[in-house]
Design brief:
The chain has 138 residues and is mostly helical. Helix content is 84%, strand content 0%. It has three helices and no strands. The two termini are 41 Å apart. The longest helix is centred in the N-terminal third of the chain and has 64 residues. It has one domain.
Length: 138
């Protein structure tokens, strides 16, 4: 027959309070870890949006030079050179605006920068702890 050591179970209010404080400590550590993970995920999404905005600026600068010259020269065959330059400038302004709006939308999707799920969990935990203390008093 297998033998095992029996651990006496402390009884009373002090044991309940001790167990509650240990449980709350573990719960707080888990919630902090959840908050860290949630914020990291939001930061990653915001970083993607910022990268898109940076990419729009870089692509606008690099492509604008060579492609603008090409488009102006091509349009200058059909319309006056000044009108060709104006047309190409408006075109690049529209492209830049679309890219900027897409990047802004991506950043807004990441907001607010709060660990929303963790906050909800902590509120539930506080209610649980309060109800545990109330039932311990009864």
């Amino acid at each position: 027959m297998a033998t095992y050591e029996e651990h006496p179970q402390p009884e009373g209010l002090s044991a309940s309070i001790k167990q509650l404080s240990e449980d709350l400590g573990l719960l707080v550590r888990r919630e902090l870890e959840t908050a860290r993970e949630e914020l990291a995920e939001k930061a990653k999404s915001a970083g993607a949006g910022a990268g898109m905005l940076s990419g729009s600026a870089i692509s606008g600068l690099l492509a604008l030079g060579s492609l603008t010259a090409l488009l102006i020269l091509a349009l200058a065959l059909v319309i006056p050179a000044w009108a060709a330059a104006l047309t190409v400038t408006v075109l690049w302004g529209a492209v830049t605006g679309v890219l900027a709006m897409a990047g802004k939308k991506k950043i807004q999707e990441a907001a607010p920068f709060l660990p929303e799920q963790t906050i909800a969990n902590v509120k539930e935990d506080v209610q649980w702890a309060q109800s545990g203390l109330k039932s311990g008093r009864s």
